[in-house]
Description:
Elements: E1 2-4, E2 11-13, E3 17-22, E4 27-33, E5 40-46, H1 49-64, E6 68-70, E7 74-76, E8 79-81, E9 85-87, E10 91-93
Parallel strand pairs: 1-10
Antiparallel strand pairs: 1-2, 3-4, 4-5, 6-9, 7-8
Amino acid sequence: MIIVSQDKMEHVEYKNIICTYNCDEDIWWIQKFNGNYNDLQNLGFYSTKEKALKVMDMIKEKYLEYERIQGGQLYTIDGFIQPQIHVLPKAFEMPQDNEV
C-alpha cells in the first residue's frame, strides 16, 4: 500500500512510518523514516498528539482491511477447495488536520 502525503506531492510505501513531535512549531508530524533521522519525509502534520495517533490508526486499519474477496471452485484430484484471493488496499491519502 502507498501513502499519499497531505500536499499530494509524495507517494511512499507503507513501511517505517513514524509519528514525531516538533517542539519548535508545536505540531505532530507523520513521517517516513528512511533509515536516517536526517532523511525524514513529511507526509502530514497535526495540531495534537491525539489527531496524529488517530491518523496512524487510520493508516493501520486501511492497511489491514480487505477491499474484496474473490474466488471460485478449484478442482483437485481429491475434490475441490474454495480459494480466496485477498486484494489489499492500494492507497491511503493523508487527511488534513481539520478532517481528523
